[in-house]
């Protein structure tokens, strides 16, 4: 998306996303594990129920999951 003003282009940054996370087995077994992630979001273009985004979101969500396999 570009905007033109007086013959000069002013570029608008698109939506951005970046993340870092880890996967850890606290009991030394693959039956229990912990996932954590830090996500940086700017102007999310969509929203979704399974993910932590909502349309237009800007911010830093930190989802954490403890999973047990049985």
Give a verbal description of the structure.
The protein has 70 residues and is mainly beta. It has one domain (18-68). It is built from no helices and five strands. The strands form two sheets. Strands 3-4-5 form a three-stranded antiparallel sheet, with no helix packed on it. Strands 1-2 form a two-stranded antiparallel ribbon. A hairpin with a 2-residue loop joins β1 and β2. The model has no long low-confidence stretch (mean pLDDT 83).
Short summary of the structure?
By secondary structure, this protein is mainly β.
Termini gap: 49 Å
The largest β sheet comes out as: 3 strands, antiparallel
Low-confidence segments, ≥5 residues, pLDDT <50? Answer: none
How many separate helices? Answer: 0
Number of domains: 1
Helix content: under 10%
Tell me how many strands there are: 5
Strand adjacency order, main sheet:
3-4-5
The fraction of residues in strands falls at over 45%
Structural class: mainly beta
Overall mean pLDDT? 83
Radius of gyration: 19 Å
SSE inventory with pairings:
Layout: E1 2-5, E2 8-11, E3 16-24, E4 32-42, E5 64-68
Antiparallel strand pairs: 1-2, 3-4, 4-5
Fill in the keyword field for this structure.
mainly beta, 5 strands, 70 residues, 0% helix
